[in-house]
Amino acid sequence: MAQVIPQDSNEHSQDNGPQKQPDKKNGWAAELWDWVKTIAIAFVIMVLLNMFVFNLSMVKGESMQPTLVASERLFINKIVYRFAEPSHGDVIVLKDPSDGPDKKEFLVKRVVGVPGDIIEVKNQKLYVNGVVQQEQYTDVPIEDPGFDPITLEEGRYFVMGDNRHLGKSKDSRMFGSVKESDIVGRAEFIFWPLSEIKKL
Fold this sequence. Notes:
Elements: H1 9-12, H2 24-52, E1 54-58, E2 73-77, E3 91-95, E4 106-113, E5 118-122, E6 125-128, E7 131-132, E8 147-151, E9 156-160, H3 172-175, E10 178-179, E11 183-192, E12 198-199
Antiparallel strand pairs: 1-2, 2-11, 3-4, 3-11, 4-9, 5-6, 5-8, 6-7, 9-10, 11-12
């Protein structure tokens, strides 16, 4: 016959007096500190990524119309040129060479000439190495006066805006070829507004 043997609770437990309740204040402070650390780490990571990997930029002015218009936002790849050289047709962000030593202003332009190229503008057309360029990204002729052939030295690039209306683009026709070290990165795509999202 099965039996139930009552156990003396004193054999298995001790009266340790009143139980100490968790300090709610300390728990809240610890959780807040965890959030602060997480946000700080995320901020540092974003700053480092922004410095060395990518950047988000806003288009200003009319110099890249019709490809880009004012207030569009661009994703800039800042690491791509560590592994490859800028090439014909790349849309790039560069430090304004005419700004002086501080160089606080940035420009968005298109690479039309790379080291070793011979660049010339005549009869409202762009010539690269003696060949007239068919530029689908621009819909107007070059309105300003042409110039004699220029041979690009090592590490130098010729950039132009897609808007070739007279005086609309501050580019290599004004400040000459640009140093590779002045190129910040390549504009990969428009990410805002959503209706204009596209790869460049």
